[in-house]
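Still learning folds. Look over my entry:

…
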Amino acid sequence: MDVVVGLDSGTTATKAVTAGADGRVRDLVSVGYRLSVPAPGRAELDAQRLADAAVEALAAVSAAARERGDRVVGVCLSAAMHGLVPMDDDGRPLGPVVTWADDRAAGFAEALRADGRAGGLHTRTGTPVHPMSPLLKLAALRAEDPDRLASVPRWGGVKELVVSALRGGPQVLDRACASATGLYGIRAGTWDTEALDVAGVRAAQLGEVLPTTAVLPGLRPEVAAATGLPRDTPLVIGASDGVLANLGIGAVRPEVAAVSLGTSGAMRVVVPAPTVDPAHRLFCYALTEDHWVVGGAVNNGGSVVRWAAQALADGDALVGEEADELDARLLEEAAGVPAGSAGLLCLPYLLGERAPWWRSGLRGAYVGLRREHRRGHLVRAAVEGVCQQLALVRDAFSATGLPVTEVRATGGAVASPLWVSTLAAALDLPVRVADSPEGTGLGACLLGLHALGALPDLDAATALVGVSDPVEPDPAAADLYRRTRPLVEQSARALADVLTTLDALDDTPSQTPA
């Protein structure tokens, strides 16, 4: 079979999958790396390691395809959004990738809100004014080290880094990744003048923006040799991981939402033209010229159960399958607790929070804790808290005139029946789980097939992607979550100042996660 490789460069691993015109994933390879947290608020990746991982993953998945007799006819790229890396004129990294999780620019986000510029920037760029965005990262660097900001030849992200590693040439990126920088006008189709001024960079320091279906001919000779692929293998520039997840799960029709629920989470819908929520609760990123993805990302997903395993069940020393088994036991224990966790409410903001408020400084809390609550209650309340946060994103869809009647879910967490049933009840919608957990990589394959002419219509992905029968919401649980959801927002608002003060008083040394 002729197959396309979907190469997905993420925050903790680069994954490569192959798929043909039938939309079925045939191979999967993952190459991991370490997220560095050298100080509070910092979250970085070794840029050269990320570039090398792309070549390693491509080599491994290409070898697997050859062993089965498949022919790789193209490679399509997916990249994590919001990263920022300094580069020279030849695309070589001059420092680490500062990832979306880096929070050092929080003060600049608040300043833009205070002076009234945040709303206009969000409306024109589609990206919420939040420290995750390259716009804010550059603004912070401008204040701290303006000489370095000006002297770096090029500023890019994960996509520019990987494109340079695979083929070299002028710095380019796709419209999807550009639309997630906070620097690009999604309607104007150019770098935004005011955003460039806030960031303190010139358009010449940023890459050329191409359509997500652009085909870049040729691989570096050393990459072709390492991967066993012909030098003229087409390289489709692709898109960002979030928008490709919608495509990979077949959620590209109106009223069908995609939920990604792994370590973190997100809920997204596809619309035919740029659409920005007037209340600035949702992002808007490009997929293709007539497919735009509107949604909200939450920082905390399955990570809340892993935290519970470490904090409540002596799981600190466990990794891999042992850690997964402990997570599963805790979820089984939590499943024995009734919906609502006996009056216990969790704000699951262990890693801060993004949508729908886009405010830094939020931290986790349990509200209503009583003596009779046990570990199962704490775990269930954390799961409910994540699903309620996604329901707040869905509420923002409704307020923006974007109805949702079906949800398609993907990610490691949805292997758990408790996660799926809680999500269905919190959203009060049927949830179908994708057959393949690699929605983003498959989405990259499908976009690549489309760009190379093998998939004429992206909307056909809905029929290609396999999903489960719908899990219907439990009416009693849905009613309970509907009545308690306003308490989530009320609690977060009431505790915001307390949490910010506690954060400022905390001088605990940061630890680098394994």
User: Anything to note?
Assistant: The chain has a mean pLDDT of 93. The longest strand covers residues 71-79. Residues 397 and 403 are 7 Å apart (CA to CA).
